[in-house]
């Protein structure tokens, strides 16, 4: 009998609305949900003052029967459950860690790798740590990760000391715990405050800015269940929470999701011997047969969705799914093999990370920047590619060795998968929610490749080192850009080899479609289409000159620190009789203010 | 939106051409053949360029792909008129020669040439030359391809009734075989309006428009960023609509007149005659190439034929993609004459000939035989030979995979 918290990794996102929030999507490319279960609409992205709502991570406990595998969710409504005591501890260790320099450090840092804020001797003062928090009961609110409610006896609590510029606010909290009516945990992150104590702050770099703070965080989430008539508490296997930037296009997934990346690391670490064992991929008819519906079709669909958030031609990203999912009949003709091979041949294969054109002259896909296109060296990987596992699945599919059947993932496992499939799995430069540390299999439990080894650090203080067997609060997001807004603004487009390559359009839109202006009755005469009908516009900045400093970005990263909360979201809507993805809920003027 | 179809493709139609449905079909078949004739010529030059990332290769490749779109779209027009497109036998182009039905005095000789700026300028750009303003429609002896389409459109526009309303049809119009990022969307042709759209896109994509700065096709049915290319900000990236720089004519001219060096090419012999090859490997590989080409053409005809099983995604695409380019590259790396040096040349090249007695069994044997002969002739193969052997092996694997299915389809 085991009890586990799901998702194994949950994702909360910052917002500047102090109270109104929504719960992060729990289905793949799903919309968030409202705490009161009303239908989620674009009005729910902001509060009544136009402030951007936070996304809460919801955690549930499942009981898994070891014999039958049957999963049952355990809540305060379950029979015999007397109480559920949640403990979470999140922190921000960005300022105390090494500088982020693409993939340097993934295999361990070199002795000459620079630290952030290298001049600060007491490194503990560079950590934002509110200490752990406990919550139990139904519909409880107000358990804050703030400086005012540090648990007594906890040592090492720390917050940046004073008002941060340019926003004129102080970071006094990293978030909040709540429970819902059934006692599930809701974890909310920070208010999106970023800044420096410097009177005239400047952002000089996309990832490392000494003196800067932001209020993203991460850490372990644990739970103990008390059953009626039993003295001993049952501990559920702990989960992890990541607090990241907002998700501005929640229904549009990345080609390589965070789930794909963590799964691939586990596959290559012998955790899924049906797919790969002792370094050998299980190829051919007797090997692993990927499921078209869950392992192939989503990859093609992701490509189909990208044209809504960046300027890429839709035609080559349109696929005949019926044809592509048709199983070859054994011994009969395989009439779609040519098409499957044709698609595979356009995908950048492993070891071609630095090429854009293949031997036949085709432009290799994805047309996205890779982990390291910024620093010359042996670890250069200019262009993103599928994970080894994704590519292997596509190879098997192209060869005709696949199945086409409904998803059989269990509800609990699907929760982990769905939440992580809505996150970025590359390129990690550094990324959005989590960087290449996600590929380090030593941070995960040996028996569960998605569950991070945790140390709740209930008494403090937090450590300064890397302890993969006992990851502490803040140990996962400390690699990310500080402030996150710098990387988020700059990583829109990347000039490379005479082209401009896109970064993470599904997470950080680059070009968006607008809703047409409402047509008044008098204007309702159909006008002939013009070049301007339904054209894409830059999500931020301008799009007519790829060399301008405001090409699809703010000209200065500091403007992202000021205006991130006013940017538009991309949502699927019925427009002019057809389903489209359009920008909604933008409160920032277009064109944007420049100072 | 209902377009003014009397101005189709920029042509003014007087509406006074009287043609029978048979004449319309003949004109449409001619258009299919004209479009098709360009492809082996462009592909020969394409495969002779070794740097696939070079601008010359990329431009030429995009044009070849769009010519395949033209073939598909012109075939749909013919099928809509009740015909079935022919690619084999007398319909297979012969090189060197003129475009079918073209004015021999004013049009270039279309040949199989090693790529060079001169070939791009004097042959390819000349093929795609825009029609001068007020050029008359010409069903034969035309000076530009646009005039042929002008004639076709005039005849269709003037036809009494809907010429695409033919009771019995032997062909199958296709919208699904034109893949990839290149311009144009294949549409079914069922009436004069859809035919007008088809012709407009073919003509403007090929030759561009006169004057050059007038927009080509301001709107395509897909999104707004349809192409990547040189932008007005001087960078490479997404382009709104379909600007005139994307026309085949301008692409060829830009390579012909470019001041940057032309990419390296393989030293192939131009307008090859395999009978003259004294290197037996070259002759055998050339014959194998023609065998493959011929089977592919038969399969292509079948894809456009109603009721016939559809070999497109199983056979034709595979042959175009996984066999033909590999056989061509291996051939171009083989000296045409005994004792030759492949890096000096002259090397062999495909002749693109149609042979009647072609089938998959023979193709497989033939590729296996040339691999064996090549290995035997080079007991200590150098890098170039090893590369040839690798691609030939890949082609053999692909042919073996396809063979059971192809034979079921009678190929």
Please provide a written account of the structure.
The complex is a heterodimer of chains A (595) and B (411). Chain A has 595 residues and is α+β, with helices and mostly antiparallel strands. Chain A contains 8 helices and 26 strands. In chain A, strands 1, 3, 4, 5, 8, 9 and 10 form a 7-stranded mixed β-sheet that branches. A 5-stranded mixed β-sheet of chain A has the order 2-14-13-6-7. In chain A, a hairpin with a 6-residue loop joins strand 4 (54-64) and strand 5 (71-74). By secondary structure, chain B is mainly alpha-helical. Helix content of chain B is 47%, strand content 3%. Chain B has helices at residues 21-48, 55-80, 117-127, 145-158, 192-207, 248-256, 280-303, 312-332, 360-377, 383-408; strands spanning 225-230, 236-240. A two-stranded antiparallel ribbon of chain B has the order 1-2. The radius of gyration of chain B is 21 Å and the shape is globular. The termini of chain B are far apart. At the A-B interface, helix 4 of A face helix 2, strand 1, strand 2, helix 8 and helix 10 of B.
């Amino acid at each position: 009998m085991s009890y586990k918290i799901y998702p194994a990794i949950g994702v909360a996102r910052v917002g500047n609305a102090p109270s109104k929030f929504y719960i992060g999507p729990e289905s793949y490319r799903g919309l968030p949900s409202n705490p009161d279960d009303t239908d989620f609409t674009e009005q729910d992205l902001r509060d009544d003052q136009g402030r951007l709502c936070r996304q809460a991570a919801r955690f549930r406990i499942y009981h898994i029967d070891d014999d039958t595998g049957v999963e049952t969710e355990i809540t305060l409504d379950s029979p015999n459950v007397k109480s559920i005591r949640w403990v979470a501890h999140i922190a921000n260790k960005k300022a105390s860690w090494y500088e982020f320099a693409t993939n340097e450090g993934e295999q361990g840092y070199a002795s000459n790798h620079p630290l952030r804020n290298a001049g600060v001797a007491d490194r503990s003062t560079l950590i934002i740590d509110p200490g752990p928090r406990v919550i139990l009961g139904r519909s409880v609110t107000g358990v804050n990760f703030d400086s005012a409610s540090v648990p007594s006896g906890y040592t090492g609590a720390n917050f940046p000391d004073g008002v941060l510029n340019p926003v004129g606010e102080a970071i006094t909290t990293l978030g909040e715990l709540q429970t819902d009516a059934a006692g599930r945990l809701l974890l909310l992150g920070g208010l999106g405050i970023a800044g420096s104590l410097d009177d005239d702050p400047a952002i000089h770099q996309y990832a490392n800015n000494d003196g800067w703070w932001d209020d993203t965080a991460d850490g372990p989430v644990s739970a103990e269940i008390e059953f009626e008539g039993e003295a001993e508490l049952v501990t559920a296997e702990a989960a992890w929470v990541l607090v990241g930037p907002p998700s501005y296009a929640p229904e549009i997934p990345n080609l390589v999701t965070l789930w794909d990346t963590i799964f691939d690391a586990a596959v290559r670490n012998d955790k899924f011997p049906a797919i790969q064992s002792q370094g050998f991929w299980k190829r051919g008819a007797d090997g692993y047969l990927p499921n078209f519906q869950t392992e192939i079709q989503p990859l093609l669909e992701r490509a189909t969705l990208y044209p809504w958030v960046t300027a890429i031609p839709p035609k080559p990203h349109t696929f005949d799914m019926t044809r592509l999912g048709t199983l070859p009949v054994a011994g009969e003709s395989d009439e779609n093999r040519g098409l499957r091979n044709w698609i595979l041949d356009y995908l950048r294969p492993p070891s071609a990370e630095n090429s854009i054109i293949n031997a036949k002259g085709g432009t290799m896909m994805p047309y996205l920047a890779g982990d390291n296109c910024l620093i010359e060296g042996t670890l250069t990987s200019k262009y993103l590619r599928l994970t080894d596992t994704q590519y292997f699945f596509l190879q098997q599919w192209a060869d005709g060795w696949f199945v086409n059947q409904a998803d059989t993932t269990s509800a609990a496992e699907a929760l982990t998968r769905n939440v992580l499939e809505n996150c970025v799995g590359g390129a990690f430069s550094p990324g959005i929610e989590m960087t290449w540390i996600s590929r380090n299999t030593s941070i995960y439990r040996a028996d569960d490749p998605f569950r991070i080894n945790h140390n709740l650090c209930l008494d403090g203080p937090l450590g300064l080192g890397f302890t993969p067997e006992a990851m502490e609060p803040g140990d996962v997001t400390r690699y990310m850009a500080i402030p996150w807004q710098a990387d988020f603004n700059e990583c829109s487009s990347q000039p490379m080899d005479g082209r401009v390559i896109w970064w993470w359009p599904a997470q950080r839109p680059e070009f968006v479609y607008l809703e047409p202006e409402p047509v008044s009755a008098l204007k309702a005469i159909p006008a002939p289409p013009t070049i301007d009908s339904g054209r894409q516009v830059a999500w931020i900045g301008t799009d007519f000159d790829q060399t301008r400093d405001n090409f699809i970005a703010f000209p200065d990263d500091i403007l992202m620190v000021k205006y991130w909360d006013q940017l538009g979201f991309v949502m699927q809507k019925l427009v002019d009789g057809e389903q489209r993805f359009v920008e909604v809920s933008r409160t920032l003027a277009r064109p944007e203010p420049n100072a | 939106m209902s377009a003014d179809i009397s101005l189709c493709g920029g042509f003014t139609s007087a509406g006074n051409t009287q043609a029978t449905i048979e004449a319309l079909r003949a004109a449409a078949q001619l258009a299919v053949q004209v479009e098709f004739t360009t492809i082996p010529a462009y592909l020969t030059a394409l495969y002779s360029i070794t740097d696939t990332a070079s601008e010359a290769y990329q431009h030429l490749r995009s044009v070849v792909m769009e010519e395949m779109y033209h073939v598909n779209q012109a075939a749909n027009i013919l099928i809509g008129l009740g015909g079935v497109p022919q690619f084999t036998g007398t319909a297979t182009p012969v090189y060197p020669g003129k475009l079918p039905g073209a004015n021999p005095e004013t049009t270039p000789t279309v040949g199989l040439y090693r790529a060079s700026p001169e070939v791009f300028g004097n042959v390819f750009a000349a093929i795609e030359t825009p029609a001068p303003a007020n050029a008359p429609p010409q069903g034969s002896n035309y000076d530009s391809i646009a005039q042929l389409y002008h004639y076709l459109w005039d005849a269709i526009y003037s036809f009494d009734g809907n010429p695409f309303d033919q009771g019995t049809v032997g062909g199958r119009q296709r919208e699904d075989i034109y893949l990839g990022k290149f311009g144009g969307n294949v549409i079914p042709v069922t009436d004069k309006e859809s035919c007008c759209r088809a012709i407009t896109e073919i003509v403007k994509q090929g030759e561009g428009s006169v004057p050059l700065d007038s927009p080509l096709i301001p709107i395509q049915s897909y999104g707004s960023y349809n192409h990547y290319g040189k932008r007005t900000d001087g960078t490479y990236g997404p382009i709104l609509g379909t600007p005139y720089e994307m026309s085949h004519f301008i692409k060829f001219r830009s390579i012909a007149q470019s001041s940057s060096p032309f990419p390296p090419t393989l030293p192939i012999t131009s307008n090859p005659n395999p009978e003259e090859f004294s290197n037996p490997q070259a002759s055998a590989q050339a014959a194998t190439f023609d065998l493959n080409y011929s089977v592919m053409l038969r399969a292509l005809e079948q894809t456009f034929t109603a009721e016939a099983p559809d070999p497109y995604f199983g056979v034709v695409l595979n042959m175009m993609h996984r066999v033909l380019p590999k056989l061509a590259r291996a051939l171009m790396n083989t000296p045409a004459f005994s004792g030759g040096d492949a890096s000096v040349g002259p090397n062999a090249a495909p002749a693109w000939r149609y042979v009647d007695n072609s089938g998959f069994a023979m193709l497989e044997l033939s590729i296996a035989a040339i691999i064996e002969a090549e290995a035997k002739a080079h007991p200590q193969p150098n890098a170039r030979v090893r590369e040839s052997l690798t691609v030939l092996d890949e082609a053999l694997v692909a042919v073996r995979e396809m063979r059971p299915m192809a034979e079921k389809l009678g190929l």
